Amino acid sequence: MSDARVRVPCSTSNLGAGFDCVGVALDRWLDASVRVTDGSTITIAHAGTGAALRVDPERDHLLTGFRLACAMAGAQPPQGLAFEVHSAIPVARGLGSSAAALVAGALLADAALGLSLAAANVVGLVAALEGHPDNAAPIVLGGAVLAVPDPGAGYSLIPLEMHPALGIALAIPDFETATRDMRAALPADVPHRDAVVAAGKAAALVRGLAMGDPALLAYALDDVLHVPYRRALVRGYDEVVAAAREAGAFGATLSGSGSTVLALAPVDRVPAVADAMRAAWEALGIAAEGSVARVAGPAQVV
Ligand SMILES: Nc1ncnc2c1ncn2[C@@H]1O[C@H](COP(=O)(O)OP(=O)(O)OP(=O)(O)O)[C@@H](O)[C@H]1O
Ligand SMILES: N[C@@H](CCO)C(=O)O
């Protein structure tokens, strides 16, 4: 057993029509380390965006990920552990902070105990806990990823091409939306006609990302499966999406389950789109950060 350190990106997921199956790793990072101690206590020191988290260590996703990885490999976790985390990923904003913490914990266990877990296993254990693989998959693999169930119990993880002329803008408001609440807002069933439209939009998303095709992306970002049921819970959603389009975006949608709004745009329009979305929120009295996001590589042991 040795000390270990990892660096894990954030992720945006869904991208409109890729609900629960498409995600992209983005360049905001969580850095974490673990040290084995002589005692029998577990400490987790959070800095950065996690500093305000009031989570008992026993319920912290970092420790959960660590223990799940040990259990998957049949290894006994040490009793005394000291974790240190610095995160730049905003919490409960649709940028995968929970998946990032789970992946970080699992990779720390893998590195510290020499578990030799495959990337697909790490995605699988995080997805099993979260109930969807679209954050864990890009965090572990980097880039844009399609994650769908494979004939066994795991997932097929397929890297998706993103056209180089395609840029990503984010607007991150100062209010949270918990994924649990946003999933509770979804209906148990949708009308068949909506399912038909959703199938076409999901196909349009994959092809639109590869080609950078404006019409396909506009169609795909205008989701019918989850956004219609969630947008009322994100104050200003319609205004921010409209502002993105007016500033030159192909379209905009919730990042993950929100509250962040993500826009896809030609690379040279991305700064203006990010600024327009921020301004739209601020016009409603809601502080927000507008930023240009870059696609990130995979989580790494450093
Ligand atoms: N180490 C941790 N880092 C972040 N969140 C944690 C951690 N441990 C537990 N949590 C819980 O997870 C919640 C955040 O998860 P949630 O799924 O709601 O948002 P998210 O992962 O930031 O966004 P999304 O899943 O929509 O991309 C926090 O409010 C907190 O209760
Ligand atoms: N696909 C998930 C992502 C949550 O981060 C959802 O939209 O609920």
Automatic annotation (TrEMBL):
Top-tier EC class = transferase
UniProtKB keywords = Amino-acid biosynthesis, ATP-binding, Cytoplasm, Kinase, Nucleotide-binding, Threonine biosynthesis, Transferase
Q: Where in the cell is it found?
A: Cytoplasm
User: Under the GO molecular function aspect, what terms does this record hold?
Assistant: ATP binding; homoserine kinase activity
Gene3D superfamilies in the cross-refs: 3.30.230.10, GHMP kinase, C-terminal domain
BP GO terms, sorted: threonine biosynthetic process
Cellular component terms, GO, for this chain's entry? cytoplasm
Which residue range or ranges hold the GHMP kinase N-terminal domain? 73-143
EC number(s) per entry: 2.7.1.39
The cross-references to InterPro entries, in alphabetical order and at most eight, read: GHMP_kinase_C_dom, GHMP_kinase_C_sf, GHMP_kinase_N_dom, GHMP_knse_ATP-bd_CS, Homoserine_kinase, Ribosomal_Su5_D2-typ_SF, Ribsml_uS5_D2-typ_fold_subgr
Pfam families, alphabetized: GHMP_kinases_C (PF08544), GHMP_kinases_N (PF00288)
Q: Where does ATP bind?
A: P90, V91, A92, R93, G94, L95, G96, S97, S98, A99, A100
Record field: catalytic activity: L-homoserine + ATP = O-phospho-L-homoserine + ADP + H(+)
Q: In which pathway does it act?
A: Amino-acid biosynthesis; L-threonine biosynthesis; L-threonine from L-aspartate: step 4/5
Q: Which residues form the GHMP kinase C-terminal domain?
A: 220-282
What NCBIfam families does the record point to? thrB
Q: Provide the family line.
A: Belongs to the GHMP kinase family. Homoserine kinase subfamily.
Q: What does this protein do?
A: Catalyzes the ATP-dependent phosphorylation of L-homoserine to L-homoserine phosphate.
Q: Indicate what this protein is called per its UniProt record.
A: Homoserine kinase
Q: Which organism does this record belong to?
A: Gemmatirosa kalamazoonensis
